[in-house]
Amino acid sequence: MKVTCLTFNPFQENTYLLHDDTKECVVIDPGCYERAEQEQLKKYIEDNGLKVVRLLNTHCHIDHVLGNAFVANTYKVGLEIHPEDEQVLRAVPTYAPNYGFPLYAEQLPASYLKEGDTVKFGNTELQVLFMPGHAPGHVVFYNGPEKVCIGGDVLFRGSIGRTDLPGGDFDTLIQSIKDKMFALPDDVTVYPGHGPETTIGFEKKSNPFLR
């Protein structure tokens, strides 16, 4: 499985494209808002001969959903989120103009993800793990054989997701990380929603929020 990161919008949000030898591709948290960003995503998919088969959100804060409608409409795929984050998604149009995104196009979910679900594409499977705290319906996507975790805004290199937004809770986030994220092997690479990747082992040793 190949993991590609494209960083979009003023929040410097990491959009992930996952694909394997079958060329089937999953898009996670598309943050592309400007036309140039949308074209960059489209060009990568075309240049690599990929077929987009799934559209997933780790959670539904504005910076992670700006490109949902573009991906859904361009590739004819339905949006998949955790049901606890639908309220977060439905709130985005009310504040998008205030954040400088007056042209935000709403895309509502076509289906829902829950703890223990398996996301399948090509010859690859991702395990859905429910990790609330940053957002009420936050999930991460874990591939055990490849030791890869697409972690959204739960755990960052040397930091954790903010908990001062509606639906956020610090104690819940810390519990999610300690009970579930840190239950993964130390050599798992975590690809976060912002900034560089890290590993479970590195964060166990050095993350100041989790000592």
From TrEMBL:
UniProt-listed InterPro entries: MBL_Glyoxalase_II (IPR051453), Metallo-B-lactamas (IPR001279), RibonucZ/Hydroxyglut_hydro (IPR036866)
Keywords: Hydrolase, Metal-binding, Zinc
Domain Metallo-beta-lactamase as annotated: residue spans: 12-194
Gene Ontology molecular functions: hydrolase activity; metal ion binding
Cofactor(s) recorded in Swiss-Prot or TrEMBL: Zn(2+)
One Pfam family hit: Lactamase_B
Name of the protein described by the UniProt record: MBL fold metallo-hydrolase
